[in-house]
Amino acid sequence: xNANEQxxxxxxxxxxxxxxxxGTVTHDVISRRFEVRAGNHPLAxxxxxxxxxxxxxxxxxxxxxxxxxxxxANLVRAALEExxxxxxxxxxxxxxxxxxxxxxxxxxxxxxxxxxx
Length: 117
Description:
It is built from 3 helices and 6 strands, in the order αβββββαβα. It has helices spanning about 5-10, 70-85, 95-105; strands at about 15-20, 25-30, 35, 45-50, 55-60, 90. Residues about 1-15 have low confidence and may be disordered.
């Protein structure tokens, strides 16, 4: 287990990001994903994995009925804020995450150097 995984295993955390009545973003460190539960809808999530000292943001999923309500943006923002706090260098393999970073350049410094090319 590398240092990033050890820091991540500290336990699930509840993050402040919230989408008007659509749930709070939580970080499930065991499942390696950021999640939002909104009512009776399936779980919305952003999944990640570790690759050495980098964290790969792999996939963002929001149920069809909840799309267009800002949930994906909240998931990504919460994940990037936690990445900054944990000093993670990320690889935005998910196209939504990559696009979010391109629109919110305050997170560009989190992208691992080799992922910027």
